[in-house]
Design goal:
Layout: E1 7-12, E2 32-33, E3 36-37, H1 38-48, E4 53-58, H2 63-69, H3 73-81, H4 85-96, E5 99-104, H5 111-116, H6 119-122, E6 127-130, E7 134-137, H7 144-155, E8 158-164, E9 174-178, E10 186-194, E11 205-213, H8 216-222, H9 234-244, E12 247-251, E13 255-258, H10 262-274, H11 280-293
Helix pairs in contact: 3-4, 8-9
The structure holds 1-O-phosphono-alpha-D-glucopyranose (G1P).
Length: about 300
Amino acid sequence: MNNKVRKAVIPCAGLGTRFLPATKAMAKEMLPIVDIPTLQYQIKEAVDAGIEEVILIISNNKEEIKKHFQRDIDYENYLYEKGKYEEAKLIKDISTMAKITYVVQEEQKGLGHAILCAKEAVGDEPFVVILGDDLIINENGKNVSSQMIDIYDKYHCSVIGCQNVEPSQVNKYGIMALKNKMENRIGYLLDMVEKPKLEDAPSTLACLGRYLLTSDIFAILENTKPGKGGEIQLTDAIKILAKDKDVIVYDFVGNRYDIGDKFGYVKAVIDFSLKRDDMKDKVLNHIKNVLSDNKD
Ligand code: G1P
């Protein structure tokens, strides 16, 4: 077994119904934060964390994802001829940023099933899972995947990325109970419940779209029955994994945007624009105008 974390799995087969009608003909992973598709941010996170191969789980109708990440020499040449050198480099860089492998998930049977589809592509080695709806930024330090790989390198067990959420939000996430009190951002998983009602939630500690899993999760997923919502839940498989093995719950450092939610998406677009030299002043000015027009 290879012990180095070299691969990342990003499930991209979902329908994106929360963003209809935009996602009727367009993959939700291609929705841009200003001009960069959200999936490109997730792939960059993996690459920046030292990941060598990104496995995208796609459905049959997600051709535009492949088109975005593959090389288009004709388009590059066209841009060169027009003197648009920066733009030509921009689109070339996308196609060379990572080795990308595609696996088609024929039927949408849930997140656990999507991860199981990556079994052959991952093989017998630990891997990172990055969920597209969670955009996580840690401006002044290592990104969240990199932080989780550091934990794995030290403890050699699965790691679940988490943060506390408002009690009213527990029904949106996998919620965890720990065996012990968290120390230095680390605890050990005792139990995990998918999207519980507040009264059934064991805590407010929510899994926020980052996992580092050992390959023994695949054998468990093969036997995991449909759970919440009739779907094969990754949460249910992790809960079983934690019965036999240590599973670390890691309170990662970073600012998370729920870009699967419309307001979370708008917040990300605003915050990311405010960080860009080419946008900051204009956007700030606009916000000031909006505020003064809406004083009352
Ligand atoms: C999934 C997982 C859930 C996790 C969440 C993080 O839910 O099933 O356990 O907390 O992602 O974003 P989804 O949001 O895909 O319904």
